[in-house]
Amino acid sequence: MSELETSPPQMAGGGRGWYRGDCHVHSLASSGGELTPAQLVADARAAGLDFLAATEHNTSETHNAWSRDADDDPLVILGQEVTTRTGHWLALGVPSGQVVDWRYGVEDSAIDRHLDEVHRAGGLCVVAHPHAPYPSGTFMYPYQGFDAVEVWNGPWSSDVPWQADNEAALADWGRSLTADIRQGPWRPAMGNSDTHLKDQIGVPHTVVLAEDLSPGEILAGIRAGRSWTAESAAVELLFTISAGAQSAGIGERLQTGGEPAVARVEIRGVQSGIVSFHTERGEVHRVPLPDSGSDVVEWHTSAADSAFVRIEVRHPDGHMAALSNPIILTVPD
Ligand SMILES: [Zn+2]
Ligand SMILES: [Zn+2]
Which of 16, 81, 219, 248 is the least crowded, having the fewest Cβ atoms under 10 Å away? Predict the structure, then answer.
């Protein structure tokens, strides 16, 4: 793909493409939620989203309403936020009406059984807001068995005292990436709004490369890490690495054959922002964006120097605008 994704929101189906979605959404069936599924569906469309996941706290009672009110625009993935005593997680892609048990904590050794239950149904298990500062909000389980980590939950940073600490979640994830990529599997990052109120949906959301706009293909894209997180639909990012005649996109492995590698980022919609490149050595390169917020930025490396490269784009005040999963660089054994 040589151009940024600029297509408008699409109906279900649609073929291979980048799709924008928010996988952590509560209606008034969740404590603190104030909106109906129909209102949230309309807000999701207005925010430019192609899909959302309905993740009420520990209930499936709104599954039917979500599916009916969305009518596939946006595509609705049925899910649940499982609020255990020692951390919350998202079950994405559960059968209609299924409820996953939440009545345990890390000391009960019960989590694996419930992750298996969701995996057997074809679903994904996502660590939710691992550093949320309220009782049961801090995630105390090992990440083993989970498919992805919600490193960005709601606005990047705010004055609200219960706001998740996204900087801490990102630092944890970035630190574990080196070992995880060597040993496999590595867990992709994602971002969701955790919407309860008006005007929260889509801030942020995950942009996924999927073979089709269907629950199975969207979840496959998230699981593979073929995704990046955007603070809004105004932000566009395309990240590829090429070496010799080969190239790879976000979440993919690039066999460089020992050739030099060029990491290339196209960005739009982040006025006076800062693009930074991150590897197992931490931040290795940063470039300011012009006032227009659009630019193409390149950085040269090799598989010997970088086992992976991932991208952050921040505003001048440090708040995140976009965050990519890594591209992994390998050489022949
Ligand atoms: Zn939660
Ligand atoms: Zn939530």
Answer: 16
